Amino acid sequence: MIKIGTRSSQLALWQANAVAHQLKHLGHVTQIVKIESLGDQQLDKPLYELGVTGIFTKSLDIALINGDIDIAVHSLKDVPTKLPEGVIQAAVLKRGNFNDTLIVKKDESFFEQEHVTIATGSIRRKAQWLHRYPNHNITGLRGNVNTRIQKLEDSDWDGAIFATAGLMRLKLFPEPEQHLKLNWMIPAPAQGAIMVAALESNNHVVTICKELNDEDTALCVGIERDFLRTLEGGCTAPIGALATIKEDAIKFKGVLFSPDGKRKLEFSKETTRDEVGDLGEFGANYILGRGGKKLMRETISIEKETNVYSTKFLSKTQSINVLPEVGVAMSDFITIKYNRIQPQHVKNPIKNVVFTSQNAVDALTYSYASEDLNFENIYCVGRRTKRLIEKKIGKVTKVESSAEKLANYLAENLKEKDVTFFCGDKRRDDLPTILAKNDFNVIEVESYQTLLSSEEIDPKYSGILFYSPSGIESFLKSNTSLNRIAFCIGETTASEARNHFETVIVSKASTVDSVIDSVNKYFKNKLKDDDK
Asked: Is 248 a catalytic residue?
């Protein structure tokens, strides 16, 4: 009986069953053992002494070392290049499709749009996509394959990137009109390959596993993983590598990107099987000697020094303004979907219109040109909203710092009691409530929808940057507050944060820059205290 250890996800079980099927074909009896967590595992030595690492492989490594299983089945791209003491790569199955695939939400026409959002949780895929399409937005995407597909369906993203092999193995590969093959994207080292790990001391099992090994696949992924190991990169570095064999010729290409995709270092070479030597290591050293060391240091520095997480993407200038010793990671926890606005709300002469957010302005001007908008008086909340209106629509009659102040102004100064309010589906009640009490007829035009786009983030982030109550709601769908600090853009957001976070810091002004200032001030004081 050979006990096969596996994670419990659908894809992991598919891989374990593929190994079990091959072993059965060779006459061996097997049993699949699901390994859920590290909770009850016991070791004679601390994990760090055995070199047990890898977020997706650690539980199986420990079960293998403990003798709870005979072999462990992994996606080889998830396996650290340095295996734990006593554990070896016993076999690599014939490789599946190594490419990436973009599943599109509707069709390819999104490439013609001004605003495009692509989802991926891979820094490698993100960097390569931005290198090719620098004006697109990338949003984070985590979870198993089924979960990620469902998140795409529930979002207003234009597409999401997946490993082709995973889609095919789970029979989830979409129809031709629903996907694009990303043959130009260099895959992760060993993508599409299944690896069997065993204890080096278990000679019987090691001998059996040799029957499963595909030599061509093992050679190719070995080159790719040598490249990765020499660069000393992992999931935190945008590294791609691909080696292929045709007859006796081996082609290899390795790439290293900056996380934003702006910088790219590449090595490629074609050789023969007999002359392959240390091809992967040679390619990595070639890149390291041409700026790769600096690029890797920057990437690792970003990862190690990041202490806060922004629930929306910051501009390059805003990111730079965060203290280097603090660092910021980010993704959009809220996405905006524009609604179709009926012509009668914009083309008929309208005396008084109100905006309380920039999103409403963007939604309106997404559908209509400024010359189509027939507004006599425009009132708004926030100076940034005012600047956007005057850039895209026309002159603002009055701006106030809050919806409550604007409503009181309108109640005191407007004789005309009809007001058209362009808003979102999660708009606050302050303005329409105050106006209704003063006998105004408020025509609410729902211009956009606020969609929650939550993802689980690492507990290491001690501070979370919030810009709206909806951002907090989205964050809490996949995360807990723990002992984190909530840095909030204004009192409205802070009021909601106090229901969930013990420490809430409010920016002095309702701007993103002011939130960053509050982050920098907090950590400056903390660093001073630490020095004491």
From this structure: no
